[in-house]
Amino acid sequence: MITDALLALHAAANACAAAATASGFSEEQAANGQAVVDQLRTLFRSRPTTATGTALESDAPLLTALPRDIVTTILHRLDTRALGRLAATCRALYRHAPPQHESVVAVALQERALHRGAGPAALGVPDLLRREWRHTLTNQPPLLASVECQGEMSAFIDSDGRLLTCGTEGVDPDDPVLSQWVNAIDDPDHEADRRVLVLPTVVPAMRDVRFRCFISGEDGCLAVSSVGEVYSWGGGEAFRLGHDEPAGGTVVDGLAGARFRSVGLGGSEASPVFAAVTENGLLYTWGSILYEDEGGPSGIGYPASETDGKYVHMRRQVILSGVCVRSVALGYGVSLILADDGRLFSCGIDLDGSLGHGNAHEEVVRPKKIEALQGVRMCGVAVDYKNTLALTTDGRVYSWGFGPLTGHGMLMDTVLLPTLVEGLANERVSMVAAGGSHACAVTEAGALFTWGLAGRFGSLGHGDESSHLTPRRVEALRGCRIATAAMGDYHTLVADENGSVYGFGLSSRLGFGTASHESQLTPKRIPNLKLWLG
Fold first, then answer.
1. Where are the domains of the chain?
2. Residue 375, helix vs strand vs coil
3. Residue 160 burial by CB count (10 A; 0-12/13-18/19+): exposed, middle or buried?
4. What is the DSSP secondary structure assignment for residue 319, as one 8-state letter?
5. Which of 515, 480, 433 is CA-nearest to residue 148?
6. In the predicted model, what is the mean pLDDT of residues 392-418?
7. How far is the C-alpha of 31 from the C-alpha of 167, rounded, in Å?
8. Per-residue pLDDT band at 9 (split at 50, 70, 90)
9. C-alpha dihedral over 160, 161, 162, 164, to 10 degrees?
């Protein structure tokens, strides 16, 4: 007997019935939902409650008193965490009747896997829960950004929700240097106008803020707090790590009053583009109208008004009729916009096919649906320099752009349309990431695959500095179940399901306590660091 389990089931059943009027259920579905509620109300009606309204443990009926199909129907409505808690605490959910039947938890998980296109799986409840949890992470992009690389820096959101950074940034050489920094003037490996933070360190100005995602770019950084506020700091390469009070911890002007779930930052230092997505799926952007190097649209998502000039200083909504935006990924002159219904849009200037519309150097001012993915439901997207990856809900990966970065085995050609990455065809991928000259995929089983041009400094993790133009598994992590990954120019960070972090590539950016330009050719764990994985 478990009171909490029954209360959770009761709440789920009520939600099931209430959803009938709001979700377009058929009359039969609505009637079934109401029958579930009626059945539970019958069980709950005669139960006394405590002063707080909670049912007394001694009077809670066994879950087996409910019809099996009723319990399965309700469990199908619970989120992964609630279902996991019930599975861990309520033995009645495993009670077989008749004995040859699987537990109702396993049945509910298998039904949900089939519903999202994962196919049948002869797995136990723990493995089914793990696979669904990974799928949940993939479909909630803000929760993926607990580790981030860009250029010469790294950032982490630890298990307490605090933001930590390390790496290299530009600085006035006359400024005082903190004790945890290596002064570039004293290090012959670095230029005199740079300094290195050698260990992951909490950003002082935001020590009391708890974060859920973070993004960095050539012109600064953006982060979303646990209450949906957007913070900004840095400018160009200076102070991007956020450890100077005047440059860190500022809520972005014009974004007050709304709750945001994710952010994006792209473009060059001279022509940056910033983006933020609200919790109800609205997309706002600001920044440069034109991509400087090419003179075409920057990917901001709308044309300039008469008063804008070349730069939009205050947020402006990108109009996408009938589209609820899930997330946005920004590269150099290109923006990819993922809708809640799985459609993918892009805008900007097409550098080597990075927009995915089939025309090299095409200019797209307003977001345009990628027609080559018609009928394919996407759940993730990543973009960097001339390299775009998209992930489907059934774990397949499409890529397009500059050939050597696509994973198709090409040395110089351009891929103008989304093309399935055959080297991952036998894997179910749960997330993708893109770097300056390389890319990676994490599978549902926790394996990491990387590919790209010359893995300088070991940024592909294969123990060498060679190019690998098709996906190759990182063997050094075979004993770890990787959950998420991020890539910079010459370094890579990954986190396993326990929140432990591993890095490889250019050592000075990885937080190992060294400022040298040594190569870390295989993954190495960053000590004393645990990430928050949602």
1. 3-138, 257-420
2. coil
3. exposed
4. P
5. 433
6. 92
7. 58
8. low
9. 110
Those residues whose C-beta lies under 8 Å from the C-beta of residue 78, and which sit 6 or more positions away, are 8, 12, 86, 108
Report angle CA 343, 346, 347 to the nearest 5 degrees.
155
Of 45-59, 186-200, 211-225, 458-472, the least confident: 45-59
Cα angle, residue 257 at apex, residues 252 and 261 outer, rounded to 5°: 70
Determine which helix (DSSP H) or strand (DSSP E) holds 379, and give its type and residue range. strand 378-384
Collapsing DSSP states into helix, strand and coil, what is residue 37? helix
**Strand 491-496's sheet: what is its strand order?**
482-487, 491-496, 500-506, 519-530
- The residue to which tokens 């230029």 are assigned: 191
| Percent helix / strand / coil, the chain, rounded to 5 | 25, 35, 40
Q: Hey, what amino acid is at 31?
A: A
pLDDT class for 27, splitting at 50, 70, 90? low
Q: Using one digit for the tens of pLDDT, what is the confidence trace for 488-522? A: 888 999 999 888 999 999 888 888 988 878 889 99
Nearest by Cα to 392 from 435, 416, 425: 425
- DSSP code for 87: H
**Higher pLDDT pick, 49 / 94:** 94
Cα 242–246–252 angle (5° rounding)? 75
Report which residue type is found at 473: R
3-state SS, 356-380, equals: CCCCCCCEEEEEEECHHHCCCCEEE
pLDDT for 76 beyond 70: no
Q: How far is CA 437 from the centre of its chain?
A: 20
Angle at 407 between CA 391 and CA 167, to 5 degrees: 80
3-state secondary structure (DSSP) of residue 328: strand
Q: 7 to each of 13, 38, 47, 85, 96, how far by Cα in Å?
A: 10, 14, 12, 13, 22
Q: Which amino acid is at 497?
A: E
* Predicted pLDDT of residue 56: 37
SS3 (DSSP) at 303: coil
Residue of 494, 502, 508, 492 whose CA lies nearest to 149: 492
pLDDT over 90, % of the chain:
39
Angular region, 161: left φ>0, alpha ψ -120 to 50, beta rest: left
Instruction: Assign a CATH topology to domain 257-420.
Output: Methylamine Dehydrogenase; Chain H (2.130.10)
The per-residue pLDDT for 145 is 58
Q: Tell me the C-alpha to C-alpha distance, in Å, between residue 452 and each of 222, 410, 441, 509.
A: 27, 10, 12, 19
Q: For residue 302, what are the contacts with CB-CB under 8 A and spacing of at least 6?
A: 285, 316, 318, 319, 365, 366
Q: Does the structure show a pLDDT above 70 at 85? A: no
